[in-house]
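**User:** You know discrete backbone vocabularies at least as well as I do. Would you mind producing a protein record, from residues through to fold? Write it directly below this note and I will take it from there.

**Assistant:**
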Amino acid sequence: MPPTAADLIRELPLGQLVDHQFFALTAKEEPLAWARETVRRLLHGQTDQDRIDDAVLVVTELLTNAIRHAGGPVSLTLDLYEKGVTVGIVDRGRDITALPADVASLLASLQDETRGEAGGGLPTSGRGLYLVSAFASGWGVEPAREGKVVTAAFCLAGSGA
């Protein structure tokens, strides 16, 4: 079972909570563009540009998954800590068992998918959680009142928070 947001916060050196932001994205005309810009703005001055880009990529992947697979209302949370940040995407999906718990299972599922393809190339979709695992310091999923929340945590080297 993947870790919960509380597990990630306990396991990673994030420090004390400094700020909490919640955004309902359902009514946004361009939720992906809006979320990318908002994450960039809120993390500006908190860490280096590469780490901001990592967080933006992860939010984009999680939000795309939520819109594509869960439907219905989606929201974004951003919790800024002394030495890190967590981003959470809440959607109406209830099935948390379909999400792999680790990178090894993500890679195994990608290899299974490519075995049946001509030329053995990588699939053009289905790699979002691999990217989340590769760029976040940790991630997890847990049930939420509205459905489920997928949380990614980032340790921010040189954090100015």
Remarks:
- Residues 35 and 124 are 23 Å apart (CA to CA).
- The chain has a mean pLDDT of 81.
- Strands lie at 17-24, 75-81, 84-91, 138-144, 147-155.
- The two ends are 31 Å apart (CA to CA).
